[in-house]
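Second attempt. The first submission of U3 small nucleolar RNA-associated protein had a stray character pasted in from the spreadsheet, which I only caught after the job came back as garbage. Lesson logged: always re-copy from the clean sequence file. Corrected sequence (530 aa) follows.
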Amino acid sequence: MDFKPLGATRTARAVKRGLPEAGYWKKFESPVLVKEYGMVTSLEFSPVKPHDLVATASTRLQLYNGRTGQLKKSITRFNSPAHSGSFRSDGKLLVAGDESNLVQVFDVGSRAILRTFKGHTDPVHITRFMPNRTQVFSGSDDTTVHVWDIPSQASVFTSNEHSDYVRSGCVFAENPNLFATGSYDHTVRIWDTRAGSCAIKIAVDDPVESVLSLPGASVFAVANGPSVQMFDISMGGRPLFSMGNHEKTVTSLCLDSNGGRLLAGSLDHHVKVYDLQTYKMTYSSNYPAPVLSVALSPDETMLAVGMTSGVFSLRRRDVSAKEQAQVELKERTVYGTRAYFMRGSSHKGVDDDLRIEYKRSRSLADYDHFLRKFEYSRALDAVLANNRAGVTVISLLQELVHRDGLGSALSGRDELSLDPILRFVSKYINHPRYTQLLIRVSNVILDIYGDLIYDSTRTSELLVRLLSKIRLELRLHQDLTLMLGSMDMLMSACEISHLKAANVSEDDDHISASATVVKATTLAVKSAAN
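This time the job returned cleanly.
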């Protein structure tokens, strides 16, 4: 059997304060606040590099550079406030609605109007390109939904089944024949362009502000009121889960690049992040005004949040050299190239993978060499000689106890070799995790060298120091016991006073609160005493 090197003793990790993903989201730098001409009602990043950002505010579509965050160009071809600026999947076209009932398609490069669709009779608040790139759907305050054909500039689908404003919608990338719309009539409808009708109708509790499809062909998220609900189309629109961590209406939803995290912005000034595996909130950030729109760039280097104050926050995350190299390598793996055939050669696998590795000789520490030869005394000297971490020494002492070699390791020593052991015991005997073991070590030392203690001045001084530490610890326990008795007496007096005043006073709540505080303090003192 191969020798197993000594491992450090593992202890329970301290509970970390804060939410589990705070470290990642805090890597986004302090926000740059950009003032727009009106409320920032929509934000969206281009799906192609450099992932430019389009911000819809007032009568403008503002395009910002995806790398620098600087304004590149403005599209001002609107006579009334614009809504829902959205990129096509190739990043070359933009579509937007406005308060003058129009739906317009723009060329991103020239800013020219390519198509204007007329058919709505009220403001258009939601526009999106269909996955086939040749069609656009729109929803309006006139309660109608249209699908427009770009080449023919005609409406190929029309429905007025909603009974209130249509303010949100999404497409399903994996199913180009379906799209969803959300309305203030408290419903979400899934439309099938092949049948020309509503395929699924889903009722919710509040007006629908945002609808977002998730990776896959069936699940989507709906923001209605202060909650975000998940539904499954494949189950006929069956609700899966509801997340209600917001205090006010949720206005915007977006996904991270992997589709594993959902970001939700709300009028309560917060943007919250949810894990779509557990449906639990993993991070929350606060903003100076109610949030109307949220967008995260596909490469997760930029987070944009639009607010009612006419300002949007732009936060950037620096990408490490290793992460950038991985992205570039992924982009270079074109079929037929060397990188394509070499891909995966440096893959290290994940924890769940089954690995078959050849045995490699491992260099052992000096104390491991002595343990392997059962030279316990020399192993203890070695671990104490080089100022190693306390946990390493403790691990060795526990191993000696396990091997029944503690007495052998401590026997046959003079005052010089006993000195580092006594110093270590004196230093760590008050440590709660090590006290029990070091008391055992101290007892073994006294059993072996009890008759020889006074023959060495150095050993006597170290034992006196150890004794003073033990007395100090005992005195602390006595003080805590006295304090515990005092707190018990205070709590009893408070409870008696509460019983007497229960029928004649209206201050029961204050007395109960005082008793609760005293009880909590007592429990804390008991915990400290133990």
